[in-house]
Amino acid sequence: MARGFKKRIQQENTENSGFGSRASGRFINKDGLPNVRRKGINVFNRLSWYHTMLNLSSFQFLSYLVVMYVFINFIFATIYYMIGVEHLTGIDKSNPLNEFIDVFFFSSQTFTTVGYGRIAPIGFLASLVATFEAFLGLLTFAIATGLFYGRFSRPRAYLRFSDIAVIAPFQNATALMFRLAPFKNNALTDADVTLSAAIEVTENSGVKSNFYRLETHLSKINTLALNWTIVHKIDENSPFFRFSADDFKKTNIEIIVHVRAFDEVFSNTVVQRSSYVSEEIIYGAQFVPMYYPSISEESTVLDLDKINQYKKVNLPNTEFDQQQ
Amino acid sequence: MARGFKKRIQQENTENSGFGSRASGRFINKDGLPNVRRKGINVFNRLSWYHTMLNLSSFQFLSYLVVMYVFINFIFATIYYMIGVEHLTGIDKSNPLNEFIDVFFFSSQTFTTVGYGRIAPIGFLASLVATFEAFLGLLTFAIATGLFYGRFSRPRAYLRFSDIAVIAPFQNATALMFRLAPFKNNALTDADVTLSAAIEVTENSGVKSNFYRLETHLSKINTLALNWTIVHKIDENSPFFRFSADDFKKTNIEIIVHVRAFDEVFSNTVVQRSSYVSEEIIYGAQFVPMYYPSISEESTVLDLDKINQYKKVNLPNTEFDQQQ
Amino acid sequence: MARGFKKRIQQENTENSGFGSRASGRFINKDGLPNVRRKGINVFNRLSWYHTMLNLSSFQFLSYLVVMYVFINFIFATIYYMIGVEHLTGIDKSNPLNEFIDVFFFSSQTFTTVGYGRIAPIGFLASLVATFEAFLGLLTFAIATGLFYGRFSRPRAYLRFSDIAVIAPFQNATALMFRLAPFKNNALTDADVTLSAAIEVTENSGVKSNFYRLETHLSKINTLALNWTIVHKIDENSPFFRFSADDFKKTNIEIIVHVRAFDEVFSNTVVQRSSYVSEEIIYGAQFVPMYYPSISEESTVLDLDKINQYKKVNLPNTEFDQQQ
Amino acid sequence: MARGFKKRIQQENTENSGFGSRASGRFINKDGLPNVRRKGINVFNRLSWYHTMLNLSSFQFLSYLVVMYVFINFIFATIYYMIGVEHLTGIDKSNPLNEFIDVFFFSSQTFTTVGYGRIAPIGFLASLVATFEAFLGLLTFAIATGLFYGRFSRPRAYLRFSDIAVIAPFQNATALMFRLAPFKNNALTDADVTLSAAIEVTENSGVKSNFYRLETHLSKINTLALNWTIVHKIDENSPFFRFSADDFKKTNIEIIVHVRAFDEVFSNTVVQRSSYVSEEIIYGAQFVPMYYPSISEESTVLDLDKINQYKKVNLPNTEFDQQQ
Q1: By CA distance, what is B134's nearest residue in D?
Q2: Which residues of C are less than 8 Å from D151 in CB distance?
Q3: B236 FRET partner, CA 20 to 30 A, in A217, A303, C272, D301?
């Protein structure tokens, strides 16, 4: 089929996608991150500690903090214990375990600077270590403060994409359509979208991917308040011109979406990416509306659960296709 | 009137507003937020906790913090009480209430890390809980720090819009005018404005809104130091061409304003939106100047209280209209 | 002379400066802020607390913090004193003054959460107040943290402008020139400049200012590493075409400069403005170079003290002017 | 050779580089900072304290904090000691050294607000100093918090440039090529590059540098996921047209690179610069690919250690050159 397919595509490789034409697997994962692994140079230079912290889930992040906290106190407790409990006042000396427990709590009371004073350092060494533990504690919480702020002030688009794209009738022709909607209480304005397609072709030299910029019917929108349906009309300028349901199934296609908007709370540009591969494109379908007037007729209601709802339709001069 | 009205409008729907043409109620509320309610998916996924915190009023925000503080201490007090007051030193054991009061204060002294030590943990369990309460306290204040910063460093335009728009004489024709002024000690530069209009028309298929981009006489301004009067000349290219006072009253119109500027303290782009509906448009009026030289003639004074002041005027070849 | 002057200026008012043509006094102060006072609405709504804090000098800001600190402690000390010193342990009851001094220190130990515990609350009321003072203390330092960060992370261009502009020979004609240089260890790239002129003219209706966009010979620069001399060639397109030394002296002129660049440490756009009025324009002068190769010939040295150094020169077909 | 060389270059000086044509030494250091030293005005006005702190290495920064901490405590210890240890409770008065040690630890316990209370102020003076030390401590940690956040939230591109550029065959001609790759777990999009060349020429007036904008084959890229090879084709429009291997060796050339991209975690534009001088340009070489499909064929692997790997090649109608 590849030869016939190559005939079908008039215009050549138009995109500098940044992806290798011989890369393998999906280019953009569903979460919008490129499907690339990096090796070489050691892992510490290869990881941005800050990017990692910001990408952890809230649960992972908090667990990480707790584990660090316990660990640090354990280390210092050991140090105080080795220095000797006689350098601390108010220790329960009944047995070694109690001694260790008390120095552990002394450590935590120092690290958090709560410093009740029931247990307090008297000796030089213990005082010295405590001096630095309290200092370390404050720096640690200074870093935690920055991380918390970095995490929740990180501008994000909070867009929900439809899981599937459809090939629907559009202006006496067909169009590739998918939709997205902001799902949080954020106000996005001046949104624009960039669409490109990676299409795998077989050449004498083997399988390779070509990249095409896809034109969209309306690529800008003033206010992203309701859902936004992105429409790529399939005409002479589209690489999918004259594609049959079969072609969409048999060809390895990936539609790469890049949305950019302005968030008025962050006062910052936010971006979100996603991608659709062949399996996620439904031939001969149409999305059903997902907003309607409120009962009071005073405002509009956007129902986010409807984002994936579509109905099957016949396409102009193409046989209805049975699959799924 | 709708038919005659449709005749009058030459150019068609030019705007991709992002609002549904069948949405109901005002599109943009006076505060600039879109008049849309979201449903579907559960409320926690639908709310950005950070956006919510930043949109609270200062009073709401502080009340929220205080309530949280009391609530958390109450929880911990209960835990300490259940563990048993014998695990704490310096508790007033005269009666259960005093006991509870003392553990409550112990909790607060731990949470804030003030830790006087008059009341201090001795038992293992109490010490353990205190260890985590102090930790939790510091994290909580880390988050509070981020929220405070997020709240007051949030770039905002601090623009005041005139409550009303006017149809005033302009260059031997008429123009739709409204004005805005920065009302705080912020320095805005490179401001630009985008104007669009939603006009409701009746069709066989029922009532729907069309969107039009409105041209403005000067859509950019270097320094937003004084007030800025936005002027949309009503000529052949305006959807309001040949609109009578009556048309402005009878038709459902909404003028959507989007202002964007650069704030030199935030070093960030700030945006603000507003909108004017039919009731807020005064036919045959003119704004009065709101700035004048200072007595010393050394600087210029901008009087913000004058922003809504206008005087009635006759419009070229239109009868003077009586209403309001 | 105004009439002759009006004859001389071909092109009309090209700028939407945002300044009123009848405003009085200098438009932009030397520090770059517009010379406008706002009145109306009460002062609290008119001041952005954050903008004010960020614009204070370091000394003012720190003094402000110290005064607040002493004031708050004084208030709380009074409250504790009124509640009664018997609600606090370890108070020196020798005389009322000592009592007050001790509650004052207790207050500060609570507000900063240092809580030595030598003085500690025992009664219900004192404990309750202390509970909230510690809470307030932490919130206050949370805000201070944000303000400190806001102050020193505020993107600024750190540009030094020459105090004077010169009319110098340039390409067989003359040009208005001034120069600027980054004076701190910041790296600015992609800088561009916008020049406009306000020229006061006398009309039947009285004195008014016209605004003109001034073309600059090179308005963009890749890397702002050395000094940058801004050149406005005085040709047919310049409002200053055929201006004599006398005209420059007698006419009220203001050159408004707006520089915009990208700082690589802040990773943000930074802007700085300045302005030159007639008195600050020197007719028939030329700047002397302010950078030279280092002794080692390995790098270039920029001498910021030379920024205002110029030498007098004759201008093509204009008599040498004596003044100043 | 200079004359022959000047003949060779058709188009003239096209760039306003911001560098003096008579500056000496490399313009841009390998780290991307301009090779310029500033003098004049005193050093404190010339240094942005914040820029300095952000440019310190982590080790330098932490050492700086520790030194400050010890220093401040030493100062306050001295003050307390001079006030007299009798103003503090719980001091070990066995000998002056122990006294000083104890006041030092008291100071640190106050500065960090840990305040055990074993040592506590009783006298007026000591309490007063402690009041301000605790206050100072909190402000210091407020600043530290801001610095930590400023340091790790500072947007950076994390790009690795190839150490060398090559002159390689390209479209029946030759091209100057070098490559870069993101080496951390950051996601860069919408990257673009600006290339310029500084070429030293000898004139009657002496040696000077001319600046040229270099056209790049593809100057924009959607997603910077894999490596990016920047290609400047050497045709009639290139200042290097008809350059021989010898010319590249003998002429003082500097290629200045400026990359700009959008980082999705920082949600900010990030920039990075680098430069290549004659010694770093290899004539007749070609880079070897640095990415390949993963074993699973499920994703692509980018091997950062390969970034400098190249193989020698013959160039069209140029003799193979042996050197380096």
Answers
A1: D114
A2: none
A3: A217
Question: What is the per-residue pLDDT across A136-165, written as a single tens digit (0 to 9) for each?
Answer: 999 999 999 999 999 988 888 889 999 999
- Residue D44 reports pLDDT greater than 90: no
Structure confidence by residue, pLDDT tens digits, D63-113: 999 999 999 999 999 999 999 999 999 888 889 999 999 999 999 999 999
DSSP B240-304: TTT--HHHHHHS-EEEEEEEEEEETTTTEEEEEEEEEEGGGEEESEEEPP-EEE-TTSSSEEEEG
Q: What one-letter code names the amino acid at C269?
A: T
pLDDT band at residue B18 under the 50/70/90 scheme:
low
Q: Is residue D43 part of a domain?
A: no
What distance in Å separates residue B46's CA from the closest CA in chain D? 21
Token pair of C148 as six digits: 């400190």
Q: Are residues C98 and C177 in the same domain?
A: no
And the tokens for D192? 């673009």
- Asked whether this complex has an ipTM greater than 0.85, the answer is no
Determine the pLDDT at residue A7: 40
Are the C-beta atoms of A166 and A177 separated by less than 8 Å? yes
Closest CA to B107 of B146, B81, B140, B141: B81
Q: Which two tokens stand for residue A43?
A: 């892992």
On whether both D115 and D145 belong to a single domain, the answer is yes
What's the distance, CA A1 to chain centroid? 36
CB atoms within 10 A of CB D124: 16
Q: Are residues C193 and C143 in the same domain?
A: no
Residue ranges of E strands in B134-247: 159-161, 165-170, 173-182, 188-203, 206-214, 220-224, 228-234
Last residue of a domain, one of A94, A128, A153: A153
CB contact under 8 A, B118 and C113: no
Same domain, yes or no: D137 and D161: no
Contacts of D244 by beta carbon, 8 Å cutoff, 6+ apart = D318
Cα C153 from Cα D150, distance rounded (Å)? 7
- Residue B42 maps to a domain: no
Pair A63, A168 in one domain = no
What pLDDT is stored for residue D15 in this prediction? 54
pLDDT in tens, C93-147: 889 999 999 999 999 999 999 999 999 999 899 999 999 999 999 999 999 999 9
CB atoms within 10 A of CB D267: 19
CA dist., res. C191 & res. C224, Å (int): 7
Q: Are residues C149 and C162 in the same domain?
A: no
User: Which residue reads 């009639």 in tokens?
Assistant: D236
The answer to whether residue A18 neighbours chain C at the CB level (below 8 Å) is no
CA atoms of D246 and A44, how far apart (whole Å): 42
pTM of the predicted model, to two decimals?
A: 0.86
D257 vs A90, C219, C298, D82, CA distance in Å? Answer: 65, 21, 20, 59
Q: Which of B131, B147, D146 is nearest to A139 (CA)?
A: D146
CATH number (domain holding residue B130): 1.10.287.70
Q: Which one of D104, D123, D153 terminates a domain?
A: D153
Phi and psi at residue D228, to the nearest 5° = -125, 120
Please give the residue that has the higher pLDDT: either B30 or D50. Answer: D50
Strand D165-170 relative to strand D173-182, pairing = antiparallel
Q: Pairing mode, if any, of strands C253-263 and C268-277?
A: antiparallel
- The three-class DSSP label of residue B129 is helix
Q: Are residues B268 and B213 in the same domain?
A: yes
A124 touches chain B (CB under 8 A): no
Q: A159-161 and A173-182 as β-strands: parallel, antiparallel, unpaired? A: antiparallel
Question: Residues D182, D237: one domain?
Answer: yes
Please tell me the total count of domains within chain C.
Answer: 2
pLDDT, tens digit, 9 for 90 and up, residues D104-143: 999 999 999 999 999 999 989 999 999 999 999 999 999 9
> What's the domain range around D163?
5-13+26-34+156-323
Chains in touch with A (3+ beta-carbon pairs under 8 Å) read: B, C, D
